[in-house]
Amino acid sequence: MATISRDDLATRIGSPALDPTGETIGIVHEVFDDATGAPAWIGISTDLPGAGLRAVPVAGADAVGATVRVPHALEAVRDSPPVQGAPISAATERALRRHYGLPEPATSPDDEATDEWEPAGDRPDVH
Prior knowledge:
The structure is a single chain. The protein is an alpha+beta fold. The protein has one domain (6-102): Photosynthetic Reaction Center, Chain H, domain 2 (Alpha-Beta Complex). It is built from three helices and nine strands; from the N terminus they run H-E-E-E-E-E-E-H-E-E-H-E. It has a seven-stranded mixed beta sheet. A two-stranded antiparallel ribbon has the order 8-9. A hairpin with a 7-residue loop joins strand 3 and strand 4 (53-57). The chain is globular. The chain starts with 5 loop residues before the first helix and ends in a 10-residue tail after the last strand. The model is unreliable at 108-118 and 122-127 (pLDDT under 50).
């Protein structure tokens, strides 16, 4: 599975997000960039009462027709820490990384100033 491009993500806001088996997880709600400006998380709204917004790593996601397929099962996404909206806090991002088994990003002392993740939709270069 290839990683989806920024353009493919932008055109699929409002589209279904699918797990590897093709089961619908929810609707692609927004995209969150990392500190470098690259897409890092896909915000998915689910249909479960009170579930709110969940985030899935962009890594491994792919455009399939008019949908986005992610490499995580429906249950894993629904059991992930909720996202309270933009920006994703550093604590939530760490919890998401632990949940999905992702390594912490390499940081330098200069990187410590960036503590939050912004939605890609707030960036002027994203359409």
